[in-house]
Request: fold
Amino acid sequence: MEEFHKVRRLPPYVFEQVNRLKASARSRGADIIDLGMGNPDLPTPKAIVDKLCEVVRDPRTHRYSSSRGIPGLRRAQANYYGRRFGVKLDPDTQVVATLGSKEGFANMAQAITAPGDVILCPNPTYPIHAFGFIMSGGVIRSLQVEPDDGFIPALERGIRHSIPKPLALILNYPSNPTAQVASLDFYKEVVAFAKKNDIIILSDLAYSEIYFDGNPPPSVLQVPGAIDVAVEFTSMSKTFSMPGWRMGFAVGNHRLISALTRVKSYLDYGAFTPIQVAAAHALNGDGADIAEVRDIYHKRRDVMVDAFSRAGWIVPAPAASMFAWAPIPEPFKHLGSLEFSKLLIEHADVAVAPGVGFGEHGDDHVRIALVENEHRIRQAARNIKRFLASSAKQPNNVVPLAAHR
Ligand SMILES: Cc1ncc(COP(=O)(O)O)c(C=O)c1O
Reply:
């Protein structure tokens, strides 16, 4: 029987192949150090968990909640934007809570896309950026470009060669997977371009608080007038180590926020109220929890870059995000990122995410997530050192797994 139309447009998740291999190595007793999925390993700060436990005892919180987010939560998010970015938001019309930012992004795509609408999307990028729109009948035009001088010319080319003219542009800085960051000046140029060409900006700022070199990533909404064309998504998952809680936000342009709010009102009843209250408590905090999470990733980053380089693998130090975007070492480059990732599991007991899983232009890199402790990261580096040394001595012994099958 033929696959359903929508399912046919969703290729099997590349990461599934790595996951299967990881599971089978583990079932053989291998101790796989998992730097693959960006799944934070740190516990949610105690005060946030305590708040959840306190609130959950009140049976009134067990009813359906509010799809767009309870008022106190939307106010807390608006206050966060005020404190952190100096951006004033109306919690009633410019803020909506989402069930994680991934859900918010996908439903925004659903809310605004007509069949055939063209979306300008980075490549490589976090998969929902493209597939949220593909699932909604949109068409992706990939931008293989960094947030530098080449960006606006790439947008101009994108506009010139797209019929119909693109509906929206996706930005994601700090980037998953590349960890690139953008400056406020960059955003100014992009906003001016978007306004001139009547294009919506969807900015994914999931890593707003994970930065290491003293430069907090800006929000696109800091650009005066950006709110006329832009919406931004943030997430509690990384900032407060709350990935399983599923709490995020979309903020910005009233028309876009109200479109998302409308679609969500048909789909969900909002996150469980105790989660929303605890999330508001987190956002209203003094920032100490955020600083602690940031500090842990910072130390892990330093350990990883240092230990991997001593193992013979030079990995550029990311300035932000919880990822390093690592070029595949020269002797393995020709294999591509999926085969190289498989080799690392098989011969070094280390899992990473193959760059091709984020788009075709990611295939000469793998993504290393800082989601194991410093000790385990050092162990991963030792394993990789051994693997690189043995493959240099006997290259024929290290055959891509596909060749065994
Ligand atoms: C860039 C980016 N956006 C969104 C998400 C999803 O976050 P959430 O847990 O809020 O859905 C992630 C998670 O890895 C991400 O890296």
Summary: The chain is about 45% helix and 10% strand. The radius of gyration is 22 Å.
